[in-house]
Design goal:
179 residues; mainly alpha; TerB-like; 69% helix; 0% strand
Amino acid sequence: MGVVLQILGLIITFTMAMEALRRFGIDVGWLNPLAFFRRRAWAKKVQTPPLYALEHPVDVVAVMALAVVQATGAVTVEQKDGVLALLRQHLGLNEADAGNLWVASSHMLRNRPLAVSEVPAVLERSADKFTDYHVQTLRSVMLGAAQIVPPASAEQQRLLEAMDAYFSQKRAAARPWAG
């Protein structure tokens, strides 16, 4: 019983000391562990670019299709129409939804080509939601986007290879140990 009273006394003393410091203008909020973890999670969420926070396979397919056509330089009207047709065909979107997905994707890429080294970061958050069918759809859309203005450039091929390598590595890591 004496130990419980001592612990209770320490808690009360600590609380009063913190309140006295606060009244004198000394910020001790950083000592709160719950607030620390909440601030840290919020900072991580805010500092992550939206391009690397995509969680739905449909969003990733649209971004990767746009990245493939941007790899050749400025996006032409023919390429845009081709990608919109691919999104409607493979994702079953209507014209308005495909256009909205195009606008969102172009906003995320901000008129800059996607580097091959960025492909794993774009795919990382949504990779667990990709089934084999989704991976095949992504591959088909990327190949179709590369073939809008044939032949496919070396940069477009590297984007396709980076996507394939990421998913084959993910599949290999998910396999159970052979034994």
